[in-house]
Amino acid sequence: MDLPSIMDINVRGKRLLVRADLNVPVEAGEVTDATRITRFAKGMRPLLDRGARLVILTHFGRPEEGAGDDSFSVSQLRPALSLALGRAVQFAHPCTGPEVVAAAKALEDGEVLLCENLRYHEGETINDMGFAAELAKLGDIYVNDAFSVSHRAHASTDAVTNFLPSVAGPLVMEEVGALTSALEVPARPSVAIVGGSKVSTKISVLENLAARLDHLIIGGGMANTFLFADGAPMGQSLHEADQIDTIARIRAVAGQSGCQIHLPTDVVVARDFAAHAPTATVAATACLADAMILDAGPRSVSAFREVLENCRTILWNGPLGAFEIEPFDRATVALANTAARCTANGATSVAGGGDTVAALNRAGVTQDFSYVSTAGGAFLEWLEGKQLPGIAALMRADKAA
Fold it and tell me: What architecture is domain 6-169+388-400?
């Protein structure tokens, strides 16, 4: 995807109106996980060194529009943001109006202004043109550096591009590049590992991946539903008995494209979903009536490993089992380590989704993947093959320029 990039522009003396996602956890007024802030700052520091003047927009939590509750004020983010950027961050409340416009115009090269929570304003979430026009007064160039909210047509991701030259920021370029390489133009052979609890929540994801990639490894409760469709007893296992037609449709797509679907051949079962509960490993077709399937078994892991070791592109969304509780994390951890080794040997590995990131962190291999997305909903919609409004707006604005 040929996105217009801020890295191709002379930014000296320019006010960059940057849409960021700094929606980070805060307790007692202090940031407890600054990962998003540090990733954002890493891309912004070179722009500041080149003389850019940053005006930062972000949402934070879900305040009632117009309430102005101080617990949702982004002023709490200033210390962590200042530390990450290596310079003082000014603050403006609210994010529109004469005072914030004056503050933005007063910025010198290399200075930063953080504006108050976008979601204090109803105009943000309804994609209001008037609110977007007010935001546009704060900058000379609009920069979308928040892929994670680009699946929402909000004023700060969509409408604002009608009023300013609009480009993608470093994080968006990085994310789009990683996802494009893994899904749109993958090195072959390619595989997707898709887990999670329900097929019904990932129908479009499974259909799109089955149409594009060479292999599809299914895990978690989703695998149970596939096995159930084949006649396997489920006992007390999580599965969706009403999705048999969906399974048939996904398999038909895979058959047409030549994608091979891989399911567990053995599974780990237990009567209790509890840490260190007594377990047994049985054939995937032999779950007892009073037991539940909670992980893929060792034979399955061995087969899945063989698939990964022969692939040049690995895409991962969702754990293979109930990874939060031992020993039902074994298949996920084992395959995560295999994917990490494949990456070290030259494969491209891209992972995303909240549970996926947590699982990779548990396995200690997050840094070993080519790219790990924290985008959540936007990542899933990309996997579905949807056009994201925030990305589409940049493309549209570029064509109109």
Answer: 3-Layer(aba) Sandwich (3.40)
